[in-house]
Amino acid sequence: MTNSKTNTLVPPSTFALGGDLTVRRIGFGAMRLADGPERPPDPAAAPIWRPPADRAAAVAVLRKAVELGANLVDTADAYALGANEELVAEALHPYGDSVSIATKVGVVRPAPDEWIPLGHPAYLRQQAELALRRLRVERLDLLYLHRLDPAYPVAEQVGALRRLREEGKVRHIGLSEVTVDQLREAAETASIAAVQNLYNLAARGHDDVVDHAAAHGIAFVPFFPIAMGAHAGPDGVVAEVAREIGATPAQTALAWLLRRSDTVVPIPGTSSEAHLRENLTALEVALSDEQFARLSALGEATPGAD
């Protein structure tokens, strides 16, 4: 009989998003492929306002991500005012059946430091049409409502995405930065295949959403999944566990997310091919029950937003 210190588990490497779209459980977030060398060290503070200064390098990273097995690539119309979607298409189109692209609508960018929800149904439909053109597809694999806009009923906002799905322009619908109650309300209008919220070892304010998603077969897609906080220092628990299993702290943080729930699909982003390889090989990292519990004890329920 094994004990909790030796009972290790490598979680499933794939998840059937929406029941029929199989993706590897570490995807690639393209948001950070923007703004060039002026990008601030803290990605959460980045304006994501312009295309990358080194476009060829960004294209190479996207292609390497797919080459290494990431088959869910995440972008948004708000990233660099649509230029991020164009970058994804330049790098990866034609996508074939092996690559799925997720994008988002519902946020306007009047200035680099402004991210303003806009949920007018006509605007959401317009932005989806533009996303189709920029990504060069006839159907979006996964379309998120980037933020719920309190100025419009949830049923109207989600209903706009449902209409697009009925027209064959969207395969699956997602929501971003929502609560369990908002998720339940949205599900009254359309089936929700994915939720993308801020979540990592240090930002655990959406634990209840992770559990709700798991119970209902919904993909939980954490953004900024490796923002581990001060406890990720060289003398912290994350580094300690990383040394025990022969992994890096980033891989250990991702392994914890994968073990947290079988429906979790992190989308770490990077402009570095070395970090990209490091992130994607976290699928091979196994944590023991004791190590998982030790890491889980780090988190405090703190809300967050991008």
From TrEMBL:
InterPro entries named in the record: AKR (IPR020471), Aldo-Keto_reductase (IPR050791), NAD(P)_OxRdtase_dom_sf (IPR036812), NADP_OxRdtase_dom (IPR023210)
CDD domains per the UniProt record, alphabetical: AKR_AKR13B1
Pfam families associated with the record: Aldo_ket_red (PF00248)
Keywords assigned: Oxidoreductase
Ranges of residues in domain NADP-dependent oxidoreductase: 25-298
Oxidoreductase recorded as keyword: yes
Protein name: Aldo/keto reductase
Lineage start: Bacteria, Bacillati, Actinomycetota, Actinomycetes, Kitasatosporales
